[in-house]
Amino acid sequence: xxxxxxxxxxxxxxxxxxxxxxxxxxxxxxxxxxxxxxxxxxxxxxxxxxxxxxxxxxxxxxxxxxxxxxxxxxxxxxxxxxxxxxxxxxxxxxxxxxxxxxxxxxxxxxxxxxxxxxxxxxxxxxxxxxxxxxxxxxxxxxxxxxxxxxxxxxxxxxxxxxxxxxxxxxxxxxxxxxxxxxxxxxxxxxxxxxxxxxxxxxxxxxxxxxxxxxxxxxxxxxxxxxxxxxxxxxxxxxxxxxxxxxxxxxxxxxxxxxxxxxxxxxxxxxxxxxxxxxxxxxxxxxxxxxxxxxxxxxxxxxxxxxxxxxxxxxxxxxxxxxxxxxxxxxxxxxxxxxxxxxxxxxxxxxxxxxxxxxxxxxxxxxx
Length: 367
Prior knowledge:
Elements: H1 10-22, H2 34-46, E1 61-62, E2 72-79, E3 138-139, E4 144-145, H3 157-175, H4 178-181, H5 187-191, H6 198-209, E5 229-231, E6 237-246, E7 252-266, E8 275-287, E9 301-310, H7 326-332, E10 339-340, H8 349-356, E11 363-364
Parallel strand pairs: 2-9, 4-6, 10-11
Antiparallel strand pairs: 1-2, 3-6, 5-7, 6-7, 7-8, 8-9
């Protein structure tokens, strides 16, 4: 379990669910097309094109977003164009970067991006977050703000606390687990997803077997190919928050919006150049009332998910992030998209997705 949330035993959690299920005479519904309905509505509102723009190799390039049929799976791949020496990391332990204290956890969306350092500081294996705002962010789940629990929808205060705790468990299992980051299947994370949500199960089955534009595991999970890169240290820096409200049919709808910073080096022994991949994910999940929705105890139904990635590959569908190092960036040339600050959390993910729909591989202003 993650820190910061009250926790109740699994047996008690299941008892709550059984009692809720026994309290109604109406048959539960299968969780199904909510995400597809969201996808269709967003397409109608924004005129978002399907598919991807042609990839334009660049030192700094920005990927475009899409919403796949099935779930709201908008993905923007921002392949960072870092000036030589401005690259930075993945898993890196420790930050380096001076005496400034760590930031308090985020409780609401900031109104401006973090300040830019006057002079670029190059990351090192010893200090993989050096020169990055992430140097003051939290380590792992410590950087993810968790709200206080209160009775909401069909859940008591204790049940909401349990749902929040398991929500953060999912974030850890999908985006922070060392084995998953090294390319393993995210079994613990998948176990928290409602197995009766068939469109999601179809996506998961296909994404790991045959990754593609529509079925890309990187939409929900952070994975790197261990034959290509390896982590620097054992820390992923994070900044973000979890919020919740009452959703449809009395469900507790939880929204997570978190930016992860991963420092890596090439897989070859002795590699010393550090590159950072920066991933911002927004995942919306529904902790459903089992009296109204078919759901296994302790699991949630996915409503939507969006991801915005810097230096993870552009228009590539291998199932792994593909960070670039200086040699690749020198060979690429300028990008064709506008500039984006990957550390700017003042822009909503919806706004970022709409903007990205019109862009090809864009420019990251920093790493």
